[in-house]
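Prompt: May I have another protein with tokenized structure?
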Amino acid sequence: MFPLLPFAAGLLVGAATIKILRGEKTQKRLDQAQDRLRKVTVNSLSTIEQSSARLRDKLQVAPSSKESSTIAEVSTESTPEPVMKCESTTTAEATRTQTEPKQ
């Protein structure tokens, strides 16, 4: 008896929901909400495009000659250490072999 009660309640709620959603007033409101949502989405996408365009312009500005010479000096002075390539070892084994003293 008890499993039948929730089923019947769900059936009644589902039927009432379908009847309400098929109403003319509800369809009109759903269409209005969809139109508003579409407009807001388009507006926010255009705002994102404008913001990214401004940031792109800021990042693409060429550095002055003084800044570029400083950057060139720094890049020639500091050279990165060579990276050891371990093809058949795991990360733990590679770390161990790099830190262990050679005999």
